[in-house]
Design a protein that fits this description.
The chain has 340 residues and is an all-alpha fold. 62% of the residues lie in helices and 0% in strands. The two termini are 38 Å apart.
Length: 340
């Protein structure tokens, strides 16, 4: 029964639905819950370093309940998107209500969309891959599937990785460097894969081209179904979701560097190359993404068996609170540079 705790992650889409249903003050429910209530709960409840016993890891990784929670996220996100577009099209909303609903929808796409797509994108089954692509579609970030798996996990905590924040690099500069760098890297990695396979870059085999088509069709569907006036809103919720992802990227590896060996290659990825957080509520909301060192140690390890690792550097606060702290660069540097 204790595993039911992961259902609490659905409080984020539930809060977004409440905002869409009742409007008024409730449009800000998702923002308040995610970046107000969750950090407070993390601050009150003690962090837990307890791990799943090794002898039950294999059986636990096969329990379908944990997978079901992930597979339901993309359909829920698309349902809420539909209601969001319908509400904006038909309801007489104030500017504040529109901003609140848009912010809440972006948070849903960041947590239930990108974050879950990240988890599923590391799995080998075609079904998991399909749901990963679906989660990345409304944020127009499907290239993340390529760059994260083939680029970030190889180059993390090195100068070659655009998704690793450097010491004294502020969050806003990181946004520009990471977003553009990951997109360019995805094209480079895909072109290299096709060349090595003897295939043409401009062909149906090019995943980057296919992703571009899928995302264009998605935006076209929004225009056809809801009108071109909703296009900026589709782009806005996508941007918010992406910025949340990049804020997480920023805090996950800030200032951490792998040593370059005499042969010119970096040392292997170790637990010390990712910032972790064992604060319970943040862990639940992000499906254990906060135990990031173990994820990099073995990317195929499912979220329900990710481990606390004593060697991993620990954030002083949970991930949601850390994301807020990162928006204030001087304060972030003052606290985090000491830990570095």
């Amino acid at each position: 029964m204790k595993d039911i705790k992961y259902v609490l992650a659905y409080l984020i889409p539930l809060s977004a639905w409440i905002g869409l249903e009742y409007q008024g003050f409730w449009v800000w429910a998702t923002l308040i819950f995610t970046f107000g209530i969750v950090p407070v709960i993390d601050a009150v409840l003690p962090a837990s370093t307890r791990n799943v016993p090794v002898e039950v890891e294999e059986s636990r990784s096969k329990i379908f309940f944990f997978d079901l929670l992930l597979y339901a996220c993309a359909p829920i996100s698309f349902y809420l998107l539909f209601v969001y577009f319908q509400t904006l099209k038909n309801a007489d909303l104030t500017l504040s209500e529109t901003l609140g609903l848009t912010t809440g929808m972006g948070i849903v796409l960041g947590s239930m969309g990108i974050n879950v797509a990240h988890e599923l994108g590391h799995r080998t089954s075609k079904v998991a891959r399909l749901f990963a692509w679906a989660g990345l579609l409304p944020v127009l970030y499907q290239h993340f599937y390529i760059e994260h798996n083939r680029g970030h996990h190889k180059n993390v905590s090195t100068e070659k990785d655009p998704a690793t924040a450097r010491k004294n690099e502020d969050l806003y500069s990181f946004f520009l460097r990471s977003i553009s760098g990951q997109y360019k890297n995805a094209w480079r990695l895909e072109n290299s894969r096709l060349k090595n396979s003897g295939l043409k870059s401009f062909s149906r085999h090019n995943e980057m081209l296919r992703f571009t088509v899928y995302q264009t069709l998605y935006l076209t569907a929004v225009i056809i179904l809801f009108g071109i006036q909703l296009l900026p809103h589709a782009l806005a919720v996508a941007l918010i979701g992406v910025l949340l992802l990049e804020a997480v990227n920023y805090i996950e590896h800030y200032g951490l560097k792998r040593k370059i060996l005499p042969n010119g290659k970096p040392e292997r990825v170790l637990p010390k190359h990712s910032w972790n957080s064992d604060f319970e509520m943040g862990r639940i909301m992000l499906f254990e993404l906060t135990r990031h060192s173990d994820h990099h140690y073995k990317a195929s390890r499912k979220y329900q068996i990710l481990r606390h690792m004593d060697e991993a550097p620990q954030l002083p606060i949970g991930y949601p609170a850390s994301m807020l702290l990162a928006t204030l660069p001087p304060l972030w540097f003052k606290i985090m540079n000491k830990r570095l």
